Prior knowledge:
Layout: E1 5-9, H1 16-33, E2 39-43, H2 49-56, E3 62-66, H3 83-88, E4 93-96, H4 99-104, H5 109-121, E5 125-130, H6 134-139, H7 142-154, H8 159-162, E6 166-169, H9 183-201, H10 203-206, E7 211-214, H11 222-226, E8 233-236, H12 243-252
Helix pairs in contact: 1-2, 1-12, 5-7, 7-9
The site of 2-phosphoglycolic acid has 13 residues, from strand 8.
Amino acid sequence: MRKKIVAGNWKMNKTLDEAVALTSEVVNMIKDEVSGEVEVILCVPALYLTTLKKHIEGVNRISLGAQNCHEKTSGAYTGEISAPMLKAIDIPNVIIGHSERRQYFSETNAQLAEKVNIALENGLTPIFCCGESLDQRQNEDYIGFVKNQITESLFHLSAEQLTSVVIAYEPIWAIGTGLTASAEQAQEMHAALRAHLAEKYGKEVADEISILYGGSVGAANAAELFANPDVDGGLVGGASLKSRDFTEIVKAR
Ligand code: PGA
């Protein structure tokens, strides 16, 4: 069975002291309150990964992730971090292709395919993000648009490689807006994406891939979203910055 995952995406938030405090709170709440099989991934600013690792060591079900990595192994890319660097500090996950990276840093599907490759080569689990804008939802074949993001960035992978990828569907119009996709809208897209994967890789492989929903997931709507058969968890932005809200979302999965 595919994994149930709730990942927090802290984005560019929290000072080091705040990050340590939030991690400690989340660790304690999850230890005390969460049972079942859900995995929790905290995608924190890269600068804090080494420190925060000490705070989650030995804690069941919680791991860390970076929010991005460069598509090259090393070199003259000022300000960037590489997949081998993440591997060297034992970080198991990395978000690839978040819509903010696509929008503000012009990351393309082809470039993201390279990032996925280098992440996998270094033993990292890519949390590959996809999703359409409001304009695309209203005026275009929005399902076709998101399917194409997956085709162009993931369909060069072998079936075995694909099973190491987590997909996060995040409609851009729902990110940070308080405007969540309805449970039906989420299920419609997730089912379409799983069918797309099945067409290329077969149903058995498609059924193994965790597809997370992201976009204004909160304590109040998580259970309804996660109740959908093709929604395997969430990628949580704003609500992951508050330990109580985030823990409630984890408990809803
Ligand atoms: P949000 O962000 O939960 O604040 O909408 C989600 C994301 O960008 O991953």
